[in-house]
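Z., the sequence and structure:
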Amino acid sequence: QVQFVESGGGLVQSGGSLTLSCTTSLPGFQIFAMGWYRQAPGQEREMVAIIKNDDSTNYTHSAKGRFTIFRDNAKKTVTLQMTSLKTEDTGRYYCHYYPPGTFWGQGTQVTVTS
């Protein structure tokens, strides 16, 4: 079973920054589009950012200009740099390939306070 291990979350004040990291055992990692997803309390999980195998990226409207996703195919890692954080960025963040499958990692909690 493919594993995704997320880290780097924490408690930060509005306007602050965090960098999330994901390591995966996904075979053939380099051919997959990878994504970061967020699940806010009481809401469904949603895509935040994706990076394709050609390193092209897509972001949600709220993330654009503040978040940056990048990947390291040799290390099988995906990183999400988050700046100018807002309280609405609060949630549990997960990485997965895109479109996502069924099994998810534990995620990492991001809490942004005002």
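The mean pLDDT is 97. The CA atoms of residues 8 and 20 lie 5 Å apart.

Let me know what you think.
H.
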